[in-house]
Amino acid sequence: MKEYLKRELNKTYLVLSSEDSGYTETYEIGMLTNNEPERILSLHVLRMDGAIEIYYDISSKQTLKDCAGRAKLSFEVIKKLFEDISQMMKEVKNYMLDMGCVILSLEYIYTKEGDFYFCYCPWGKGEVLTSFRNMLEEVLGLLDYHDTKGVELAYHLYQEACKGTLCIEKILEEHDEKTENMKILSEEELYSNYEKNVELWGEDSLEVNKLHKEENEIDKKKGILQRVINFFLKKEETPKAEEEIALREDRSYGFSHEAKEEYSYTELLRPSESGTVLLGNMPCGRWKLRPLFSGGEEFFVSGDDFLVGKKRDSVDGFIGRETISRIHSRLFVKGNRLFITDANSTNGTFVNGIQIQPGEEVEIFQGDRILFADVGYECYNSL
How many CB atoms neighbour CB 38 within 10 A? Predict the structure, then answer.
């Protein structure tokens, strides 16, 4: 596809030519020029020597790729981008256009004053879900890694695109609902109580956490992000034991946990609630998670996939607490070894006081202590 930029007086245009494309003009160009959908770049057409050149008005606009090169993509930007994509998709449908002709590469998505505009090219048709996946992979590489909400939303969208289903409006609504219902632990709640953190986790973990708050650890987080992407792509094998130990030493963020007299109510689902076997009634689970404080119930983990969270009908280990995400963490057994991953939870999962990254597989050993947000367990082998 031939393309170039052209400036005329106070206007700047992106020009795409149908030369060598074999395109035969249809109603689409007339539909676009006569109606000017709000989220599609304004355009006009020149016809020369049997070829068509479309002039897209990009005056005072910047590509999303250029913007992301100067500042990482935040939650607000990602949410607005997909709100505008959702609006654009409705316009494409209303004007009987083809969604496959919208170029979803960040080089062809333009922004001005917080709004996003898209390039519709009649001879550039592609497979819609593939285009979405490719765009989201670009987005994943440009995230603000410190923006938990943005990371979670982007990964959720990417997961749905990989499944072959992408209902953007529904995903955005679910994310808004989750944010409204979730209590976000404050910085003080997470990190302030130094003495009690020492009492619970020991000084070594605090020293590790202190080191990992240094600015030079940002580069390491980029590597961690790639492992998260690989997790969703299912391209990465389980790290070897020695690699896993190194990962645990590289993990950032500590956790200050204040012991409470009353432990939040935790239960395992009954078969009548979800069809899930009550693991506590099994003859003998290999691994147990024992509550650190009185009032909690043990989790017996012996299956391949054991989900912990507060969405009663979707998890094996239910924790009825507002700081817990709907699907908070995943535990699983490989051979005789127990592993845990964080499922993009809002308030995090911590092993021995050190936060693990979403999608990172961490091996759990006898006596390790796990925090799901502010709910603590100790792990031991029941055999």
Answer: 12
